[in-house]
Specification:
With 194 residues, the chain is an alpha+beta fold. It is 20% helix and 29% strand. It is built from five helices and five strands, in the order βααααββββα. The protein has helices spanning 26-35, 41-44, 46-52, 62-73, 149-154; strands spanning 15-23, 83-92, 101-113, 120-131, 136-147. The protein has a five-stranded antiparallel β-sheet with strand order 1-3-4-5-2. The chain is elongated, with a radius of gyration of 27 Å. The model has no long low-confidence stretch (mean pLDDT 90).
């Protein structure tokens, strides 16, 4: 399975449809709010949301929606990224509620080679998130620095740093197993009489 792309693999105009989608639960929303110390009752207090808001129910916090869509895009867009350079724009277009399922897709807007290093380039993309009924909920644009094929090969290929599994001695072929060297006895000190 491919994880991210090299600079050469991006084509302006290409659209990557991220899979699978994610159903947003009340637990997801509450945990994200509590971890990030966003205690707004619109997200955490169902009585408040029902009795005082236009929505009549809790709205999923927007930063979670953005983060979820960003994460969905990683295998297709930034899995090999050297750096995320910039979030150019972020728009929350419609609310997301507990139980909605989000889907995302990313369009390549532009790509430019690095001016300072020949082994990387900058890709400009737009990610759009929508619900199970097709309602657009979030749109953001970002710039990502990605490696060229040369950069990847020079640093160990497709999965750099991945160790090979150790094979227990009992499973190694007989020719590969060498007997341990015999221990030499410790030298005995000679005592001399004076």
């Amino acid at each position: 399975m491919q994880f991210g792309r090299t600079y050469e693999e991006f084509e302006v105009g290409a659209v990557y449809k991220h899979w699978p989608g994610k159903t947003v639960t009340e637990y997801d929303d509450h945990l994200f709010c509590l971890l990030t110390m966003n205690h707004h009752p619109l997200h955490l207090d169902s009585n408040y949301a029902q009795s005082t808001t236009d929505f009549g129910r809790n709205v999923v916090v927007g930063n979670y929606i953005y983060s979820l869509l960003l994460g969905m895009s990683v295998p297709d867009v930034s899995g090999k990224a050297i750096a995320n350079l910039e979030i150019e724009s972020l728009k929350h277009v419609a609310p997301t509620f507990h139980g909605d399922t989000l889907y995302g897709e990313t369009t390549v807007l532009d790509k430019t080679p690095s001016r300072s290093k020949s082994d990387r380039g900058i890709v400009h993309v737009e990610t759009r998130g929508y619900k199970q009924d097709g309602t657009l909920v979030c749109v953001f644009r970002r710039k990502v620095m990605v490696p060229t094929e040369t950069y990847v090969e020079e640093r160990g290929g497709e999965q750099p740093g991945r160790p090979e599994p150790a094979v227990p001695a009992a499973e190694k072929p007989a020719a590969a197993v060498r007997p341990a060297p015999a221990e030499k006895p410790a030298p005995v000190e000679k005592k001399t009489e004076k």
